[in-house]
Amino acid sequence: MRPLTLELCAFGPYAGKTELDFSRFGQGGLFLISGDTGAGKTALFDAVTYALYGEVTGTYRAPDMLRSDFADPAATTYVRLTFEHRGRTYTVYRAPEQLRRKARGEGTTTAAAKAELLREPEEPVSGTRQVTAAVTDLLGIDARQFAQVSMLAQNDFTRLLNAPSADRSAILRQVFDTAFYQQLGAAAQRRAREAEAEAARADDGVLLQINALVPSPKLPEENARELADLQAAQDPYQAPRAIELAKQLIAVDEEAYASAVASLERVDDEIAKTSAALESARSLARQRAELAEAQKALADLQAALPQQQKAWADTEARRPELETLAASLQALEEELPRHKALAEARKAAETARREASAAARALAAARQQDADLAKEQTDTEKALADCGTPDADLARMEAQAETAKSLLDSCGALLKALPGLRAADETARRAQGRYLDAQKAADEASGRHTALLRALNAQRAGLLARDLQEGLPCPVCGSTSHPAPARLSGTAVTEKEVDDAARVLTRCQKTATQASAEAGSAAAAARAARETFVKDADAFFARRKNRYDGPPAAQLNDDGLAAALNAQHRSLQNGLQELSAKLDALRALKDRAAKLSARLTALADQRKTLAQRITALQADAAGKAAGQAAAEAKVQTAAGALRYPDPNALHKARADLQTKSDALRRALDDAAQARRQTEARQTALTERVRALNDALAHAGGADADLSALEKAFAHQKEVRTVSENARRQTDQRLTANRTAARQLAAARRRADAAHQRHAVLDSLSRTLNGNVAGRIKLPFEQYVQAFYFDEVIEAANRRFFRMTDGQYRLRRRQSDAISGKTALDLDVFDAYTGKYRPVASLSGGESFMAALSLALGISDIIQQSAGGVRIDTLFIDEGFGTLDPDALEKAVDTLAALAGSDKLIGVISHVEALQNRLTRQILVEKTRAGSTARLVLD
Q: Helix, strand or coil for residue 211?
């Protein structure tokens, strides 16, 4: 990947648009990036990285902080990079998410991030993530690898040289992405710990099942004591013996269980026999008691029967009274319809009366409503006349308000612009001050240069005059007489001092010229702004001629202008407030007149409708009055035909007769039912006494001893309870011990498997983490890092050996006691002494050359490990200031050889010797308005 052109705008320290044409540097060789500290030299590499991958890999700033603080609010922050890769040309454009001033209106808007990759003849790629993925696929490396291969920062590769093994391991982990091997060792260690914990849990499961075994009273004492000792020992490796004891427990309790079941069956047979005898004895006792009770009840019934028969006969003799009461009730029933007709007539008369009254009230209400509407109509007509015609006054005042608002806006704009005049004047004054300071510095530099030049010329004349001899010609004028030869100056001046003074003079004159132009531009801008302001202010005062009698704007200073404009602003505000109040009153009056007019129309319509309704109400009231008279006549006719004028008296007489009839009927029914029930009970008792006598006669034999049977039955139940408890306890032990034995065997198998798995994982963890007894204590990750580091050192030595004229070679420390703490230690072989020594013993310049060689070696190995990726441009940041001239020359020669004709290497440095040596440069200049960059080719 070789950059051809780089265009950036509002990016980092670069305020405006900056364009760099790398193609002018050719296909290969060295070029220098120079400039003041903080000017933005490294930011150029950040721009390249951001264009390709959408991120910056250094600590310059985060991707969301790339927008320049110097940028114009309307400018867009973006980077456009055109580069060549494998014979094809690509252009990538990328802009971060940013706040920009709105194109229309005021305020800011958030512009979304954008990215596009042009790759003709293929279709373009759009979208931030899509472009990053396409560039990664195209170059074969990601952003982190690109930064490691393309940007060699002095602090980073010096840290790699001097770091201890632990820190160097962390650096190589980042460079070669070996964290996977560290994670592999940590995962193996974690899995080993988990397997160990799982084995311990499996052992706990074995112990849990051993402790779950329940001893049996039938177990031999020796075996019972062995089981207790085994449970107290808490040793999972005793599981085999525990399984044997469990089998003995199960066998003993199975025999005891069978014996308990047989005993229960015998007891149950005895209980069944006793229960049958007990039930027979209890049945005979119950029958004798029932016979005695039935005989007594029959005797009592027969004794009370004559008196009951007399009462039944007396009640039956009253049956003829029912027919008399029924005839009287029938006569009263015939009177009921006539009372109902009277009630309906009275109800109809009341309805007619209410309707006639309601019609009369409705007619009176309608007449009163018409009178109220007539009065409201008169009042509304008078109020409408009082409103007059406000439309003309409203239009005139609205025009005055619009004019006042326009004047107020103009006055506000002038007041807002007034501080800008002062700021422009202050800017012009400061620019003039900077120009005067720059011109003074230029004058001083000119004076110094002139003085040095004169001194140098005088010194040259003194040198010629020193060798003059009388009679011999002067080599300058040819005279043989030398009456006043020039004398040597007391101060020696060199050509370099004169040249340095000339460069300072040129720089000061350039600064003074630039300051003069800036001062002129600032002054012109201040004058133009003030002239425009004065013109606008006079136009405003002219429009306010009736309210402003002061001098023109040109005759007022800034304070006077502010006072005059503020007074006008207050006056306009007060006037607008008064106009607003009057406008509100006129609008309210106009609305009132419109409402009153609409109300008059509505009132006329209401009265017309109401007149029609009054006519209808009059006819209805007359009809309702006639209906009321007819209904009242019907009430009088119906009342004259009644035997009981009062319906309540009729209902009371009817209710009394019905009550007597119901009471007599119930008495007759109750007497008949009582006779039937008594006869049925007498028959049932007689039959029950006969049946019990027959049953007792057929039972025969002597009475059994009921008390003795009950005691024998209770004893048998107690015996069964004891036997059942013994069977249940035995069954519970059997169930528990069978479960424990089965689970103990399974737990033992799980424990054996867990211990085997732990042994395998523990061996793997110790191997990967360098903890195998009797072996080198070297973790797997550092083994891999040592492999990579040896390749880096081999690549680095090819350059370090050349830079040091064959004196030094780097080597990873070799020792029989190597471990993770020393596996990446670095030594240097000194060919002059034939000995190895630590790299920390190198001088500052030697350390820089060693560190640079290591960094270039890392770049080589990364490109090789990325599948032959080729990066045709390399940036090296700082570090050359520690080299003496000879070492610097060798370092530059090595880099030039590395670059060759097909690789560009950019050196970022302040070293002046490099500026003289490397004529192809990117010069970065820092100003108060942001940085700029340009190419210098000679």
A: helix
873-877 and 835-838 strand pairing: unpaired
Cβ neighbours around 207 below 10 Å, total: 21
With 0.70 as the threshold, say if the pTM is over it. no
Type of residue at 648: N
CB distance 30 to 907 below 8 Å = yes
Q: Tell me the two tokens of residue 698.
A: 């057929």
The end-to-end CA distance of the chain, in Å, is 26
Residue type present at position 193: R
Quickly tell me which residue has 């199960």 as its tokens.
250
β pairing state of 808-812 and 151-153: unpaired
- Per-residue pLDDT tens digits for 584-639: 887 888 888 888 888 889 988 888 898 888 888 888 888 888 887 888 787 777 77
Instruction: Find the helix or strand (DSSP H, E) in which 155 lies.
Output: helix 154-162
Peptide bond into 885 cis (omega under 30): no
Confidence of residue 160 (pLDDT cuts 50, 70, 90): low
93 in Cβ contact with 114 (< 8 Å): yes
CA dist 352 to 343, 357, 616, Å?
14, 9, 18
Summarised one tens digit per residue, pLDDT across range 12-55 is: 899 889 999 998 988 888 889 988 888 888 888 889 999 999 98
CB 905 within 8 A of CB 22: no
For residues 172 and 182, give the distance between their C-alpha atoms in angstroms, rounded to a whole number.
12
pLDDT in tens, 362-379: 888 988 988 898 888 888
Residue 6 · residue 44 · CB < 8 Å: yes
The H or E element spanning position 37 is none
pLDDT at 60: 45
Burial of 281 (0-12, 13-18, 19+ CB in 10 A): middle
Residue 286 dihedral angles phi and psi, to the nearest 5°? -65, -40
CA distance 357 to 624: 8
User: Count of CB atoms within 10 A of residue 201's CB?
Assistant: 12
Kindly write down the DSSP assignment for every residue of 447-476, as one continuous string.
Answer: HHHHHHHHHHHHHHHHHHHHT--TTSPPTT
Query: Does the CA dihedral 402-408-411-413 come out positive or negative?
Result: negative
Radius of gyration of the chain (CA): 63
More confident residue, 383 or 922: 922
Cα 119 → chain centroid = 38
* Count of CB atoms situated within 10 Å of the CB of 708: 12
Q: Which two tokens stand for residue 571?
A: 């006056």
Q: How far from chain centre, in Å, is Cα 312?
A: 99
- Which distant-in-sequence residues (6+ apart) come within 8 Å of 229 by Cβ? none
In this structure, are strands 826-830 and 114-118 parallel, antiparallel, or unpaired?
unpaired
**Do 275 and 243 meet the contact criterion of CB atoms below 8 Å apart?**
no
Could you tell me if 882 and 845 are in contact, meaning their C-beta atoms sit under 8 angstroms apart?
Answer: yes
Residue in 78, 112, 101 with CA at minimum distance from that of residue 10: 78
Per this entry, what is the length of the chain?
938
Report which secondary-structure segment, H or E, holds 17.
strand 14-21
3-state secondary structure 875-910: EEECCHHHCCHHHHHHHHHHHHHHHCCCCEEEEECC
pLDDT tens digits, 189-240: 899 899 889 988 988 888 898 888 888 888 888 888 888 888 888 888 888 8
What CA–CA distance (Å, rounded) separates 370 from 606?
Answer: 9
The CA–CA distances, whole Å, from 113 to 78, 133, 325, 714 equal: 10, 16, 112, 97
933 three-state secondary structure = strand
Closest to 781 measured CA to CA, from 162, 186, 115, 340? 186
DSSP output for 49-101: HHHHHSS--SSS--GGG-B-TTS-TTPPPEEEEEEEETTEEEEEEEE--EEEE
Mean pLDDT over each residue of the chain, to the nearest integer:
82
DSSP string over 739-794: HHHHHHHHHHHHHHHHHHHHHHHHHHHHHHTT--TTS-B--HHHHHHHHHHHHHHH
